[in-house]
Amino acid sequence: MSASPKRMKTVHLSAEATSSSEMVATADERDGADNLKQMRKDGMSQREVHILSERQRRKSMRESFSILQSLVPKLKLKHTDRITVLTEVITYIQSLRGALDELERKKADMMEFLGLSGKHRSRRQEDDLQATVTYIDPGNNLDDKDGELVAMVEVTVRMCGPDVFLTLNAPQRRGVWSGVLSLLQKFSIEVSNATLASSGNSSFHCIHAKAMDVSTLKGVNLQEELERVIVKELGRQSKRHRN
């Protein structure tokens, strides 16, 4: 027996209400029960309610799998069975987890090389790692005020193969940063990334760079070269202020 236009309209409106309620995950069960009661009040038989509910469930399942499929880069086919979708999603999540673990490992290594980790280095890392830390002597050619500024300078150089890690703590003066970059360029050291910060009259530079030709650094004390550049720039700025 065919349904009347009024009955068909009621079924259509009830279906829309059911679909809308499924968008709220925390209220699915409550809304579903309310919709069933409403559909029965509208005169729908239990069989009709069951058919409509099953139709909505399958539609919601298809939409969920479609969204899941769109999140995986490899799954671009329109007709992909659900087992394939689930298998690819699991594989993709595992690959993301592996990539995350690798990034965490690299981050830990970076922190360790910069001296920001309390973990002990392995013997191989100790063999590859060279580090020097210095507090610069003010010298006799600077007055007391300038000597105090130079004494604030701290230079740390850490090397592991072609990787160069620098930390520079110096008074905030124009020309220091450009002088450091010029020196690195002289020895074919390219800056990968740098963090610059300032506090009051001091500036802090944390630099990760790569030596394009490690042989150019043989016999070179990079830490001493950086000291000379910083002292030179501080002295130059002091002369300008006095003049």
From TrEMBL:
- Where does the source fall among the domains of life? Eukaryota
Keywords annotated in UniProt: Transcription, Transcription regulation
UniProt xrefs under InterPro entries: BHLH95-like, bHLH95_bHLH, bHLH_dom, HLH_DNA-bd_sf
Q: Where is the BHLH domain?
A: 45-96
Species annotation: Ceratopteris richardii (Triangle waterfern)
Q: Name one GO molecular function term.
A: protein dimerization activity
Q: Does the keyword Isomerase apply?
A: no
UniProt-recorded name of the protein: BHLH domain-containing protein
In residue numbers, the region (Disordered) covers 1-32
Positions with biased composition (Basic residues): 1-10
Establish whether keyword Transcription regulation is in the entry.
Answer: yes
